[in-house]
User: What shape does this take?
Amino acid sequence: MHRENVVSLTIVEVKELENIFALLLLGSFVGFPSPPTFLAVELLPSMEKEFEILNRRAQDSSDMLAELCGMLGID
Assistant: This one.
C-alpha cells in the first residue's frame, strides 16, 4: 500500500517538475524573467513534450493542492 502511494506521489512530482522546467524556459509568456534567448532557442527542438504539457495544463488547470490532498486522503 505504501509503495502505491509513493509511486503516485512521485508521478505527480515529475509532472510538476516538467511544468516548472517549461515555465523556466517559456516564462516570458506569463511574466517571469526569461533565460537567454540563445539557450531557449537551442532547447526548443527538444521541448515538444513540454509544449504539450503546457497546453494540457492550460486546458485542464486544476488545483494542485486539492489533487495532492486527494492523493494523501485528506478530507
Notes: The chain has one domain: 2-72. DSSP finds four helices and no strands in the chain. Residues 2-72 form one domain.
